[in-house]
């Protein structure tokens, strides 16, 4: 079920009330209830694929136990390898089987050999990219002895299948989230209230910003050959905001929901479009995934230690794998490749850790230099997003080519893009997130009179209902 | 916990209060100028137009796609264009028209293709506005399913009453307003305007709803009891949209052909080139209106001639040759 659906509007209050009033007294009951509702939440989409969640959880639980009970390095290594093969194999088959078969056929046809292997009619199980990585992080951390293996099977299954994060993250680590399942959660008023605020802000970003941008973006990309260049520029910019608002909105709702149930979840986005360079952007975008790749792939490969060749190789591997993680399409891989090209110069020149604090810290407005830096980073990121959004690499290049034409100065009016909703709501989001850039989310800790605060919450709720897009759009990251 | 629940209840209470206040506020100046209010005049036409009558029922493809004066002059029938917007829903269009149908009436029903899929025939936001803005008494035409459908739009409707743009700087649309209709119920305000760039619709991916055909067959039976006649035809649709939706259109055509209902023309016959569209794939410009009207006249004439040949009484009387 979607977070922005009528079903979830009924589901969440019932879960909340039962969780805190009926199952709160006993830890095991609390966890069992959470597990049941998590599986109900996932099964609402397709109960058949629930077996994969259970299988993945079971495999990694057993792997953890084996790793914990053996000191033999060969056994431990073998267990880790088998666990990785299973988790990544599960993920790989569902996600990439047909992609690799198709490219295999194409490669052979280039040399005149025509093959006819069967492709399978495979549906991508929702959330598989997220829960497999979550479960795998547990096994790897147990192998590295960063974490004791758990014997509490319910707690572990709960951790992997935790419904707020099950479909699209954040990919919380076992070292931080799993211990929260060992202790009975007690209700914290301030945490719950802030969780509600975060949910509200997430819904605003998803329903008002992302869904309205999606309508315009879909129209522009579907008809880019006949649209003026100015509309293509808007299409690229709107897609940048669409994917940000969609995914960060989902993350806000997921984190807020977890907080309502007494859990702390990691931050997934930290105002990435206020980054002053690409390295900072990648520290602020989809933090749970990028840190996963950094810790479990980049660093084991050697990270930024070693020769320039090794550093370059590792950088490309990380970004290409990140692209591939997003989907079985060359556009995602090329998007990763472009970001590697952006990132590498900063890394090789040692300038990738220049901007570690938040921009204009303690100040109201950025300096001209900071504004230019943010603008440049945004333009670079947006150019890369075009490849992410396009149906093919060729279409993306064609799209970019058409931007540089005479119609760049034509006002994109009368194209039915819904600018009267998108522009004001985007402006509000950017202003709010700028003013709150040092906070965890847009509505955290607003230092104004409670009457004003409540008025703002009521207005945001009304705006969500009033200007929410008519077409219901799935969260973008569900397809990954 | 109590403090938290109390806050949630107070917040929800305030929000519901705001919605209720919004509901009871009168229609906004912007809404009052909408073409949905034209339904009042169209009902007057249905009451007052003398026989012999030909009544057109459907979505904006008919309101933006007919020249009823030409129909009157050519077929010697008094036309009534009841169409306003597809979003009102096919079910409501049929249920609200039946009480006005009289003996001898010819009814030409032209649903838009989307009406045959999923539950689009039940109506959406436009139906809700027709009830809550135009005339609350029309709620009598709705069944439970339709009411449940429109209630989903209620919070948005109530919130609209707080939108300042609904009260200030309200400029009446030159095309989409209550004053855009002629004396037959055709939208004619756009006939002298330039066409806009028409973005095609994508494919229809929802499931075909066979209950829609059953609903039309029931309507046909009701008409026959009143000694009126029903014909079904196809919308004048932009060619690119037609090609995108060809699979869905074939399903509709097949089901209608199997239904036993009297069909006028075929989907391809009403496929319109891009240059005949006004602003959406279903709205025809003046040239498109003329072409579509002429095609429809040909089809209606052929159907009426076939009925005379079949000796099927058209207006409740036998053919003169049989009066012996």
Summarize the structure.
The complex is a heterodimer of chains A (480) and B (324). By secondary structure, chain A is mostly helical.
Verbal overview:
The complex is a heterodimer of chains A (480) and B (324). With 480 residues, chain A is mostly helical. Chain A has two domains: 6-186, no CATH class; 191-276 and 355-479, no CATH class. Chain A has 18 helices and no strands. Chain A starts with 5 loop residues before the first helix and ends in a 13-residue tail after the last helix. By secondary structure, chain B is α/β, with parallel strands linked by helices. Chain B has a single domain (34-313), classed as Rossmann fold (3-Layer(aba) Sandwich), CATH 3.40.50. Chain B has 13 helices and six strands. The longest helix of chain B has 24 residues, at 286-309. Chain A binds chain B through residues 6, 20, 187, 189, 192-193, 196, 219, 222-223, 226, 414-416, 454, 457-458, 461-462, 465-466, 468, 470, and chain B through 1, 3-4, 7-8, 11, 14-15, 18, 125, 152, 155-156, 159-160, 162-163, 196-197, 199, 202.
> What is the average per-residue confidence, as pLDDT of chain B, rounded to a whole number?
90
Main β-sheet of chain B: number of strands, strand sense, barrel status?
A: 4 strands, parallel
What sequence of helices (H) and strands (E) makes up the elements of chain B?
HHHEHHEHEHHHHEEHHEH
State the total count of DSSP E strands of chain A: 0
Greatest interface by residues involved: A-B, 23 and 21 residues
Radius of gyration of chain A, in Å, reads 23 Å
Query: What is the count of structural domains of chain B?
Result: 1
Write the CATH fold name of chain B.
Rossmann fold
SSE sequence of chain A, one letter per element: HHHHHHHHHHHHHHHHHH
Helix content of chain B: 40-55%
Over all CA atoms, what is the radius of gyration of chain B? 21 Å
Give the low-pLDDT segments of chain A.
none
Compute the number of structural domains of chain A. 2
Alpha plus pi helix count of chain B: 13
Envelope shape of chain B? globular
Instruction: Work out the helicity level of chain A.
Output: 55-70%
Low-confidence stretches of chain B: 314-324
The computed structural class of chain B is alpha/beta
**Helix segment tally of chain A:** 18
Q: Strands across the major sheet of chain B, in which order?
A: 2-1-3-4
């Amino acid at each position: 079920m979607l977070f922005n659906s009528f079903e979830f509007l009924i589901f969440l209050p019932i879960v909340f009330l039962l969780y805190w009033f009926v199952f709160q007294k006993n830890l095991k009951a609390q966890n069992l209830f959470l597990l049941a509702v998590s599986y109900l939440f996932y099964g609402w989409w397709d109960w058949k694929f629930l077996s994969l969640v259970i299988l993945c959880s079971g495999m990694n639980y057993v792997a953890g136990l084996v790793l914990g009970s053996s000191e033999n390095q060969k056994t431990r290594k073998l267990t880790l390898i088998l666990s990785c093969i299973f988790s990544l194999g599960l993920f790989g088959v569902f996600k990439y089987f047909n992609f690799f078969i198709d490219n295999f056929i194409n490669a052979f046809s280039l040399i005149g050999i025509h093959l006819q292997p069967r492709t399978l009619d495979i549906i991508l199980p929702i959330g598989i990219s997220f829960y497999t990585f979550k479960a795998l992080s547990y096994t790897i951390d147990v192998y590295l002895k960063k974490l004791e293996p758990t014997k509490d099977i319910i707690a572990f299954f709960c951790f992997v299948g935790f419904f707020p994060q099950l479909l699209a993250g954040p990919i919380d680590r076992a070292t931080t989230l799993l211990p929260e399942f060992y202790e009975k959660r007690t209700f914290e008023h301030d945490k719950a209230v802030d969780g509600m605020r975060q949910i509200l802000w997430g819904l605003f970003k998803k329903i008002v910003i992302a869904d309205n941008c999606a309508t315009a973006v879909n129209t522009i990309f579907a008809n880019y050959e006949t649209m003026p260049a100015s509309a293509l520029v808007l299409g690229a910019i709107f897609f940048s905001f669409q994917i940000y608002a969609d995914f960060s909105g989902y993350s806000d709702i997921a984190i807020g929901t977890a907080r309502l149930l007494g859990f702390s979840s990691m931050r997934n986005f930290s105002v990435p479009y206020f980054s002053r360079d690409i390295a900072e952007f990648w520290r602020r975008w989809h933090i749970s995934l990028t840190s996963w790749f950094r810790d479990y792939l980049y660093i084991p490969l050697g990270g930024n230690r070693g020769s320039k060749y090794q550093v370059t190789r590792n950088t490309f591997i990380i970004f290409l794998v990140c692209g591939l993680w997003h989907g079985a399409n060359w556009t995602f891989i090329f998007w990763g490749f472009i970001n590697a090209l952006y990132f590498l110069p900063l890394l090789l020149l040692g300038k990738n850790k220049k901007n570690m604090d938040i921009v204009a810290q303690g100040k109201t407005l950025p300096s001209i230099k900071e504004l230019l830096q943010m603008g440049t980073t945004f333009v670079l990121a947006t150019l890369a997003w075009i490849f992410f959004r396009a149906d093919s690499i060729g279409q993306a290049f064609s799209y970019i080519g058409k931007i540089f034409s005479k119609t760049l100065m034509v006002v994109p009016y009368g194209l039915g893009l819904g600018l009267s909703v998108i522009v004001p709501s985007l402006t509000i989001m950017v202003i709010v997130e700028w003013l709150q850039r040092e906070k965890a989310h847009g509505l955290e800790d607003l230092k104004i009179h409670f009457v004003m605060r409540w008025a703002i919450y009521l207005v945001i709720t009304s705006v969500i209902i009033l200007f929410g897009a008519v077409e219901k759009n799935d969260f973008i990251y569900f397809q990954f | 916990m109590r403090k938290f629940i109390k806050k949630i209840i107070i917040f929800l209470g305030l929000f519901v209060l705001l919605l209720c206040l919004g509901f009871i506020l009168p229609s906004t100046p912007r809404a009052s100028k909408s073409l949905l209010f034209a339904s009042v005049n169209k009902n007057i036409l249905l009451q007052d137009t003398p026989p012999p009558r030909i009544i057109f029922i459907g979505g904006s493809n008919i309101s933006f796609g007919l020249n009823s004066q030409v129909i009157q002059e050519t077929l010697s029938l008094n036309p009534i264009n009841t169409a306003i917007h597809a979003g009102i829903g096919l079910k409501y269009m049929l249920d609200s028209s039946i009480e006005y149908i009289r003996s001898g009436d010819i009814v030409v029903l032209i649903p838009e293709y989307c009406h045959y899929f999923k539950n689009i025939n039940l109506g959406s936001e436009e139906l809700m506005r027709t009830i809550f803005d135009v005339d609350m008494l029309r709620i009598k035409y709705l069944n439970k399913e339709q009411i449940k459908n429109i209630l989903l739009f209620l919070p948005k409707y109530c919130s609209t009453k707080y939108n300042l743009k609904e009260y200030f700087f309200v400029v009446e649309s030159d095309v989409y307003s209550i004053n855009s209709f002629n004396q037959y119920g055709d939208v004619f305000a756009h006939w002298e305007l330039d066409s806009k760039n028409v973005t095609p619709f994508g494919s229809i991916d929802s499931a075909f709803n066979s209950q829609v055909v059953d609903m039309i067959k029931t309507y046909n039976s009701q008409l026959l009891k009143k000694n009126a006649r029903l014909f079904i035809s196809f919308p004048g649709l932009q060619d690119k949209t037609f090609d995108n939706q060809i699979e869905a259109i074939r399903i509709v055509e097949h089901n209608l052909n199997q239904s036993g209902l009297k069909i006028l023309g075929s989907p391809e016959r009403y496929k319109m080139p891009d240059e005949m569209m006004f602003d959406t794939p279903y709205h025809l410009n003046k040239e498109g209106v003329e072409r579509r009207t002429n095609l429809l006249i040909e089809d209606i004439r052929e159907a009426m001639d076939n009925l005379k040949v079949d000796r099927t009484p058209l207006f409740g009387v036998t053919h003169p040759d049989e009066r012996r």
